[in-house]
Amino acid sequence: MLEQMRKSSQSLLIYILFGIVIAVFIISFGPQSRGGGGCEGAMGGDESAAHVGGQTVSTQAYTYAFRLMGGGNQPAQFLKLRRFKEAVMDRLIERELLANEAERLGFDVGEEDVNKMLVEAKIVGLGIQRSVPRIQKDGVFNYDQFKNFALYDLGLTPERFVQQQRRELLASAVRDFMRASVRVSPDEIKTAFEAKNRQVNLEYVRFPSRKYEGEAEPTADELAAYVKANEAKLKETFEQRKAIYADVPQEARLRELVLHPTTPADEANTRKRADIIIGRVNKGESFGKLARELSDDEEGRSKGGDLGWKRKGTLGLSDADDAAVLEAKPGVVVGPYKKGDNLALYLLSGTRKGTLAFDAVKSDLAEERLRQDKAVTIAKQRAEQALALAKAAPDKTLKQLFPGPATESTDTKPADGKPPAKPAAKPAVDARAEETGLFSRRGSIVEQIGDSPALAKAVFDLKPEAPLAGPVEVAGSFVVVRLKERKDPDPKELEAKKADLQRDAELVKWNEVMTNWVKARCQEEKAAGRITVNRSVLKYDDGQAPVPYEPCVGDQDGQHRSPS
């Protein structure tokens, strides 16, 4: 039939008919195709990419889907990062499950069904309907353009294309069948309308746990206990990082205390301050404690001056001073040394060099884990304190309660060289309140704050008489929110837009039905041994083995399920 159409392509009618066949070709492999994992299949072979419920997905079908989804134009590492080939395989499996169901239900796709669509230069690719002007010339189907597109862009003959297109249209028939069966109640419409049109504006304060790692300093006893209780986990971490512990150059574990002269002429007084600090350390005070209280470097102050392991050329000092610090005797304060416009004191607690064994780094690994754990506890405590302060002052906004850390005046340093007095710490005042602006519910996303199902539900239940929620953990931070403004939907708008709202609600529900059906059927067929995948087609062109892949476990996205 295709050869006949080619020979008679002068006829307008034949042009149209052949255009139909061509469009069918394109459908199967549309850019939204959810087909299999590789583009290595050759045009001439029948090697399978997968078997789904008795049907074979050829490597040609996979190649077609892969290329039309844009996989042929991207580097292997980019595709691998996105798990692109695995996504293609997921989509092809879904198509076959739907097409098999269509045959079981007795659906049939005839040539007239294809012609009716393609006369209008439209195709369907895995549920997405689209136009295909590329296979036409001056608005009429052109065989040569179609043939070149099929052979060189997609790697399929027109006959193979027709086979694939039939599977696509069968799958679309089941999608449409399920779409027609979906109904939503008036209550569902109202709920969807209110969810979409109710808006809130929030004030919030965020307490990121990483911010408190500096003050979450574990004691020697805590480190020893953690190493003893978690040695297996620490060894596992060591093995994962083993490469960074090989051939380590000379390094020193350091603390730093930075002093900032008020003016260039004030350097003498600043050196006197440094001498006072050295004297206090020599009398037994903790360098880390003094760095947390007296350092003029905000980040260093929060960490008790801890710099971790440092090597030559990383301190921002002159070569001579840098060498003096790295060669200092452990436990002895050295300096002050010029560091830009500042002066800096250092305390070395240990050195290391060469390829490090587990015993040499286990305390560092334990310290890292303990700091993280303790920082989470501190962040939660600060958030709880913030919530308590907000509850105790219901007439104040969060912005009034939490304007941000106060900036210390630089003229508070006395001229006698003694360390300036530090204001007493107040719980939870180190946070700065922010505002989201008005936003509507959008799944589990809370505007400006992040993804949290618990918080997303809570904030839309807030009322002026009960405006506070939290603390809730969101992406490593604890958050407290206060309702600033709430806009409820207008019931009159619900009545005016009921038809549109019903259609939108049905589409949402249909997508849920489709997602659940595909996942359940896929798992059922896999359990029966009726889904197998040739994992070699999932191999990326990076010289590595195919990535792990298991069908029926990936997230299903419904963006391709527009009615055809």
- Shape assignment: extended
Number of structural domains: 3
Radius of gyration: 34 Å
Category from helices, strands and their pairing: alpha+beta
Distance between the termini: 27 Å
Q: Give the name of the CATH architecture of the largest domain.
A: Orthogonal Bundle
Helix segment count? Answer: 20
- Poorly predicted runs are 1-45, 407-419, 421-428, 556-564
**CATH domain class name of the largest domain:** Mainly Alpha
Number of strands: 18
For the largest beta-sheet, the strand count, sense and barrel status come to: 5 strands, antiparallel
How much is the average pLDDT? Answer: 81
CATH topology of the largest domain: Triger factor/SurA peptide-binding fold
- What proportion strand? 15-25%
Q: Level of helix content?
A: 40-55%
Structure report:
This protein has 564 residues and is an alpha+beta fold. The chain folds into three domains: 2-172 and 529-538, Triger factor/SurA peptide-binding fold; 202-209 and 378-408 and 422-487, no CATH class; 212-375, Chitinase A, domain 3 (Roll), CATH 3.10.50.40. It is 45% helix and 17% strand. The strands form six sheets. Strands 7, 12, 13, 16 and 17 form a five-stranded antiparallel sheet that branches. A four-stranded antiparallel sheet has the order 9-8-11-10. Strands 2-1-18 form a three-stranded antiparallel sheet. Helix 2 (12-28) crosses helix 6 (111-118), helix 2 packs parallel to helix 7 (143-154) and helix 2 (12-28) crosses helix 8 (158-181). It is extended. Mean pLDDT is 81; it is low at 1-45, 407-419, 421-428 and 556-564.
